[in-house]
Design brief:
alpha/beta, TIM Barrel, about 45% helix, globular, binds 1,3-dihydroxyacetonephosphate
């Protein structure tokens, strides 16, 4: 049984005080909820990582993800952040290759592959994002696009490395649009990604890797999505900005998967 994961990706939102307020509300909301069977991860902007890390205790069962990193170890790369710096701030996870980074910051599959390797080398689990645009879906290119993103992103990873990675399928047309993929549409692509992993790494590795869905996830649709056999959790944007709706998504995920 793969352990479900729910990640709050705040993107470029929340100051330090807003982030701390969220943690406080989230902690209250999850007080009666056992997080033994789910990984709940917050992904604040870089500026709030340390403060959030300092406030979450071991007993909260909350983990931290960064939203990006750079693939070089250190040096003259103004504006970039290294794996060691993120680890030092308490990050166990890092989101890599989000479609917003591909779209607005020109990230390529090759660069994403280097970032994934750097994250793993630095003992962080990459949350590797893939997904097609609306045009690509309409042109029936979804499997080709996602297949190629996956193949290039994980190129050269050992069985051990891929086993600790997390893949997030986020169709670009579902991000921030209020139009989520239907559970059937999402499951079809998740199943495809898992079969790709099976062909490359074999059954047992493919069954280990967790594949999350992202794109307009809400407290209302989480249950139907996570009920699907190959959907192991959610990467949540807009609905994760409010502690109450994020808590409801976490609870929905736990109640459905167990
Ligand atoms: P929304 O949940 O706002 O659609 O964003 C999804 C996303 O991009 C998470 O990484």
């Amino acid at each position: 049984m793969r352990r479900p994961i729910v990640i709050a990706n705040w993107k470029m939102n929340k100051t330090v005080s807003e982030a701390l307020q969220f943690v406080e509300e989230c902690r209250k909301g999850l007080k009666e909820v056992s997080l033994d069977s789910v990984d709940v991860i917050l992904s604040p902007p870089f500026t709030a990582l340390k403060a959030v890390s300092d406030t979450i205790g071991r007993s909260d069962n909350l983990y931290l993800a960064a939203q990006n990193l750079f693939w070089e170890e250190k040096g003259a790369y103004t504006g970039e952040v290294s794996a060691a710096m993120l680890s030092d701030c308490g990050c166990k996870y890092v989101i890599i290759g989000h479609s917003e980074r591909r779209q607005h910051f020109g990230e390529t599959d090759e660069g994403i592959n280097k970032k994934i390797k750097r994250a793993l080398y630095g003992n962080m689990k990459p949350v590797f994002c893939v997904g097609e645009t609306l045009q690509q879906r309409d042109d029936e290119q979804t499997f080709k696009v996602v297949g190629s993103q996956v193949e290039k992103g994980i190129d050269g990873l050992s069985e051990e490395a891929i086993s600790s990675a997390i893949i997030a399928y986020e169709p670009v047309w579902a991000i921030g649009t209020g139009r989520n993929a239907t559970p059937e549409q999402a499951e079809e692509v998740h199943g495809f990604i898992r079969s790709h992993l099976r062909e490359t790494y074999g059954r047992s590795v493919a069954e280990t890797v967790r594949i999350l869905y992202g794109g307009s996830v809400t407290p209302e649709n989480i249950r139907a999505l996570i009920k699907e056999p190959d959907i192991d959790g959610a990467l949540v944007g807009g609905a994760s900005l409010n502690a109450d709706s994020f808590v409801r998504i976490v609870v929905g995920a736990i109640n459905t998967k167990h």
